[in-house]
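Notes from the 1:1 (GR / supervisor)

We went over the backlog. Supervisor wanted to see one worked example end to end before approving the batch request, so GR pasted a single chain during the call. The sequence is below; no edits were made to it. Supervisor asked that the structure be written out right there so they could see what the output format looks like.
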Amino acid sequence: MNVGEKIQEHRVKNGLSQEALADKLGVTRQSVSRWELGQALPELDKVVAVSRLFRVTTDELLLEKENAFSKPNKNVLHLSSVYLIVKNFQKSIDFYEKFLSMRMSSINPGVFAEFYFDNQNISIMSESNLPGHNTTINDTTGHNDHKFVLNFWIECLRCEHQRVKSLNIGEVTDIRNAHTDYWYFNVYDPDNNEIEITGGYEP
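Structure output shown during the call:
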């Protein structure tokens, strides 16, 4: 990996957009983009600033090394992002900011918003800007027939259940037992997309 790829990896891992990183370093977003694309190298003082920000050594940023990340297996799928197509764009952003306890990482107003969470990307996509995509609500269940289910795991399921209920952001089920040692509860976002949360639980 070269220095630009390492900066990108640490930026995404820490949930920062290019613009947010640029603000912290006192450079333009275009500068960060050029570094990550390998079109330019950051000045030494910026390398030092990046190393302090992400708590890594300058050697780790500057010295190239081969690893599994730099040579992805072409025959294996790699998760890039999770897209949620929503009817009410702003209401969904408000929901996920509260649910994830974080501000969105970046936004194209009225089109999409991104959340970098646990080294992954969740993108909220506005249905009005995606012709041919829509959310269909089942008249019987009240939930989507075709939807994404987001699955999260947490150490203390009871604690998380109490936290999510206290947010008052939507329907939250009781904690349920699917099978031996698998406990979970669901919460539904403004488009009735299902979020399943599992974890450690003592009945």
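Supervisor's comment: The mean pLDDT is 80.
Batch request approved.
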